[in-house]
TrEMBL record:
Domain of life: Bacteria
InterPro entries, A to Z: ATP-dep_Glu-Cys_Ligase-2, CP_ATPgrasp_2, UCP005522
Protein name from the UniProt record: Circularly permuted ATP-grasp type 2 domain-containing protein
Coiled coil: none
SUPFAM superfamilies cross-referenced by the UniProt entry: Glutathione synthetase ATP-binding domain-like (SSF56059)
Circularly permuted ATP-grasp type domain sequence ranges: 71-444
Length: 471
């Protein structure tokens, strides 16, 4: 059996210092009260419409994302290490994006293979030579972290296109404070409720204008993350728009309002590149705005995140991020990558094919837990199916060892039991690169499952950054 790092209890069975106050409260609280608060949480989430859309589900697409009332706690000293690592990583990724659309120094140096970038589906020729304010491409990033059996943090993947989940981070905190105010009174837990104001400040700073007009652009209410789009627009006090609400005139973007056309300077867009402008990309897109790219290239509009950021969070690029940090920042990576085999390389493909039952195999452009194989949990038929896929298109896959993801006590039907978790901190890049203290903790609710995505049955927890215990 692999050794899992338990977030709450050390190997000797002692409660970790940053969990002691919570553990005492949990021991003193009647189980009936805990069950009642869990039911209240489900009811409140349902009333607030905090749902996600599950595509292809015959039982209905709208689902309540499961919320667990046992928090994931991280001591402040540990968090500072994570924070520095996330900032370092996102800074290097932004420098990489600016480089590949300008001088391409890292490609000429042979550190990142040019063919991995220039023919990547997410590489946008329209961005070549285009100068962006502060050279920022990924204004909002999500860095997915896991802990292996020794307690070390590893970066599992980077999310630079339209990272989601921050609304659940904020709503989970509101729910915990509402249901368990006594927990927050008994210890120092870092606040996160200022995230919307930091996000708005980041978006405004992305423009060279003094007081730019900001909107959130959504594909519409049938999108899986529509709740989050509406939530963030409301919390920032800006308009939520769809493509039909906008138009381009004289290379400027305007919003249709009851008071007439209003200029738009910054779009926090929550739809993919291909759908943004039917004149430049997918001609069948009814979600975008004709002429948007022209306004963008003229410097009359900021898109957050920028076009073409997807090339930097492609899983085929992921193995090179530590080298990017060394190349651009002249620093050693603070956070480690998970060891990764690139199946496009024949010798690494041979290793993967010989060890499929022990590995996790992912599509380089996959997301949401789809298109992946978790070898130890897969049937022989699933393994053989993936073997055929790998042989047919090896460049489309990477493989990684099956990590012993850390566990956290979680309420399940049988009571309190350990379940595997990850962590997605959200990094904001503007004048400075910043994080709120915490992130979205996702939990795999199925026993033994290592897949935490909500689309695959995962839930969420509140993430506490707790001041270190003086004892």
């Amino acid at each position: 059996m692999p050794a899992f790092y338990d977030e709450m209890v050390d190997p000797s069975g002692e409660c970790r210092p940053h969990y002691k106050a919570f553990a005492k409260w949990l021991a003193d609280t009647p189980e009936e009260l805990l069950q009642q608060r869990r039911r209240e949480a489900d009811l409140l989430f349902h009333r607030a419409g905090i749902t996600f859309t599950l595509y292809g589900d015959e039982q209905g697409t709208e689902r309540l994302i499961p919320f667990d009332t046992i928090p994931r706690a991280i001591p402040a000293s540990e968090w500072r290490h994570v924070e520095r690592g996330c900032i370092q990583r996102v800074q290097a990724l932004n420098m990489f994006l600016d480089d590949i659309y300008h001088d391409q120094r890292i490609l000429k140096a042979g550190i990142v293979p040019a063919e991995q970038v220039l023919v990547n589906d997410h590489y946008q020729l329209a961005m070549c030579g285009l100068d962006l304010h502060r050279n920022l491409y990924a204004h909002i990033s999500g860095v997915d972290l896991v802990r292996d059996g020794d307690g070390s943090y590893y970066v599992l993947e980077d999310n630079l296109r339209t990272p989601s989940g921050v609304s659940y981070m904020l709503e989970d905190r509101k729910m915990m404070m509402r249901l368990f105010p006594e927990l927050f009174a008994s210890q120092r837990i870092a606040p996160i409720n200022h995230y919307p104001s930091l996000l708005l400040e980041t978006l405004r700073n992305s423009s060279p204008l003094d007081n730019p007009s900001v909107v959130v652009m959504t594909p519409g209410r049938f999108n899986s993350a529509y709740f989050e789009h509406a939530f963030l627009a409301r919390e920032m006090g800006v308009e939520l728009v769809e493509g039909a609400d906008l138009f381009v005139r004289d290379d400027r973007v305007f919003m249709r309002t009851t008071y007439g056309a209003r200029p738009v300077d910054v779009i926090y867009r929550r739809l993919d590149d291909a759908y943004l402008d039917p004149l430049a990309f997918n001609p069948h897109s009814a979600l975008g705005v004709p002429g948007l790219l022209s306004a963008y290239r003229r410097g009359n509009l900021v898109l957050a995140n920028a076009l073409g950021t997807g090339v930097a969070d492609d899983k085929a690029i992921y193995p090179f991020v530590p080298d990017m940090i060394r190349f651009y920042l002249s620093e050693e990576p603070i956070l480690k990558n998970v060891p990764t085999w690139q199946c496009r390389k024949p010798e690494e493909l041979s290793h993967v094919l010989a060890n499929l039952p022990q590995l996790v195999v992912k599509e380089t452009q996959g997301s949401g837990g789809y298109g992946m194989l978790v070898g130890p949990a897969a049937s022989q038929a699933e393994i053989e199916d993936f073997r055929l896929r790998l042989k047919a298109n090896p460049a489309n896959y990477i493989a990684q060892p099956t990590l012993s993801l850390s566990t956290c006590p979680t309420f399940v039907e049988s009571g309190i039991a350990p379940r595997h978790i990850d962590l997605r901190p959200f990094v904001l890049s503007g004048r400075d690169t910043r994080l709120v203290p915490g992130g979205l903790t996702r939990v795999a609710l199925r026993q033994g499952s290592l897949v935490v995505n909500s689309s695959q049955g995962g839930g969420t927890k509140d993430t506490w950054i707790v001041e270190d215990c003086p004892c």
